[in-house]
UniProtKB/TrEMBL annotation:
InterPro entries (alphabetical): BBP2_2, OMP/PagP_B-barrel
Biased composition (Polar residues): 59-74
Protein name as annotated: Outer membrane beta-barrel protein
Region (Disordered) location: 41-110
Domain of life: Bacteria
Compositionally biased tracts (Low complexity): 75-84
Membrane spanning residue stretches: none
């Protein structure tokens, strides 16, 4: 009995050993050619695109190395369980292929500092080159997105007992040119407004705004920005420096350029920036045709600022910032005999916060001092508050808020200038896939020095607009807005404007 049991156990042991060797042999024979094939792929190949059809694991005609049994389709659940036992992949490196991975697992986009430039609506512009459903015009390595809006508007102005109405055509041109480079980035934006009065005598208000930003990705976690811009606008009649009774206010031309460097020192973030602004004023025209020369307001201003931030976490970075400025007028003294060239310095402290695409911005509080060359002009000293907020509480809803403090020089004899505190806000909500509503609001408080003899004034404005997407290239727009300027001394100004238009875009 014992002998029979020994023989039976020995036979079972032999059978188990033969089965084990058969399974191991099949696995080694199958894995060896697959491993060699994967290692031979180039980094820009995809494994799924390169496998021959006869090598598919689900092909029932494929046999093992022994040729005895067909290979059965792989079970997805068992494959997932076996992969979960393998060690996690190391971090992919941008400067070469990770030795722990094969070339087939790397994507071309991982080697880029910038992701490919997307289309406006997210469609793949180059996948179907013959289709006309992708927005944007490709220009080599750039993408141009132009739009033109033509509208008809009515405007009602009232200052005290004086009323002025007009009906006018307005053409808005907007365009964005963006690069699609592996490194660095160039963005050029342009906006222009042209107006033509159909009735009424109110002044037409054309504007032009051009800006370019070249971002350079330098070594050692350093980023540089080279900027340039041009702005043209006509002073509003409600502006404190506007010429009273003028039929055409002065046209203002501004040229700007700047350079900034940002460096990441680990937990510390450093920024230094230099900006130059050249401002030129044209003549104003009175109601009787007399021209008033305003060349004594032409000036060149330069500012420098430096910022140091400390990373408490990737989402919260407190900072401190200092700034220095100098403005030099072309003429040493203006038409009233005052030397208005000035120098300024200030500082602020605040915090940057970045919680992803849903919530980001910064807020800072500080103090600014502006001293004029003419001793008869009092210095302007004021606390400052600056910041911006971008919040998207839900898909299709975007909220933005901006705060800014600026010191504006005056043209009134004996008055140095004033501090302008501005608040702007915008709420955009997508009511339907093809209908978007936008509400804007803001206020400007102009705070004059108490010893200057001028009274403070506050400006409020609000507007509501609807945009209906007729199709991919046409939008129907409508808007209505109201602006109120209140003055402690003098009449208040009311302005109501409404219009409807059509936008053509690509």
């Amino acid at each position: 009995m014992n002998i029979g049991k020994d023989k039976a156990g020995h036979g079972a042991l032999q059978l188990t050993a033969w089965a084990t060797f058969a399974v191991l042999g099949w696995g080694i024979a199958f894995a060896a050619p697959m491993s060699a094939y994967a290692q031979s792929l180039s980094p820009d190949q995809n494994l799924d695109d390169s496998l021959p059809a006869s090598a598919s694991p689900a092909d029932p005609t494929t046999t093992s190395a022994g040729g005895a049994q067909p290979v059965q389709p792989t079970n997805a659940a068992s494959a997932s369980a076996s992969n979960s036992d393998s060690p996690p992949n190391m971090r992919l490196r941008l400067d070469g292929v990770d030795p722990t991975t094969t070339g087939s697992t790397l994507d071309n986009d991982l080697r880029r500092v910038n992701l490919p430039e997307p289309t406006v609506d997210g469609l793949k512009a180059r996948q179907y080159p013959d289709r006309a459903d992708a927005q944007g015009i490709p220009l080599g390595t750039f993408t141009l997105r132009p739009s033109v809006n033509q509208s008809i508007n009515v405007e009602r102005d009232r200052t005290g007992s004086t009323k002025d109405n007009r009906t006018f055509l307005q053409t808005d041109l907007r365009s964005t040119l963006t690069s699609d480079w592996d490194r660095h980035a160039l963005t050029v934006t342009g906006e222009g407004v042209w107006q033509k009065n159909l009735s009424g005598t109110s002044e037409e208000k054309p504007t032009i705004n051009l800006n370019a930003d070249l971002r350079l990705d330098l070594p050692a976690d350093t980023t540089a920005h080279l900027t340039a811009g041009y702005q043209f606008y006509r002073e509003d009649t409600s502006d404190p420096n506007a010429i009273a009774g003028a039929s055409k206010q002065s046209a203002v031309n501004q040229f700007t350029t700047g350079l900034s460097l940002e460096r990441d020192f680990g937990l510390l973030r450093g920024t230094t920036a230099l900006a130059l602004t050249r401002t030129v004023y044209s003549d104003a025209v009175l109601s009787d045709g007399t021209k008033v020369t305003l060349s004594d307001r032409d000036q060149t201003a330069g500012t420098w600022r430096g910022r140091i931030g400390y990373e408490l976490s990737p989402a919260i970075i407190p900072f401190v910032e200092v700034n220095l400025g100098r403005a030099i007028y072309d003429q040493t003294r203006d038409s009233n005999g005052y030397a208005r060239s000035n120098q300024s310095y200030g500082g602020k402290g605040g915090v940057e916060f970045d919680l992803g695409e849903k919530f980001r911005g910064e807020l800072g509080f500080g103090y600014q001092h502006t001293q004029f060359d003419d001793s008869r002009l009092a210095s302007v000293d004021s606390p400052t508050i600056d910041g911006n907020l971008a919040w998207s509480p839900q898909r299709g809803t975007d909220i933005s808020i901006g705060l800014s403090t600026t010191v504006q020089p005056s043209t009134t004899a004996g008055l140095s200038g004033y501090t302008a505190y501005q608040l702007t806000s915008t709420v955009s909500h997508q009511l339907r896939d093809d209908l978007t509503a936008k509400v804007t609001g803001g206020t400007i408080w102009r705070d004059y020095p108490s010893n200057g003899g001028a009274s403070d004034e506050t400006e409020y404005d609000t507007a509501f607009g609807l945009t209906w997407g007729i199709n991919r290239y046409l939008d129907l727009t409508s808007n209505i807005g109201y602006q109120l300027t209140t003055r402690k001394a003098g009449d208040d100004t009311h302005q109501l404007q409404a219009g409807v238009g059509l936008t053509v875009k690509r």
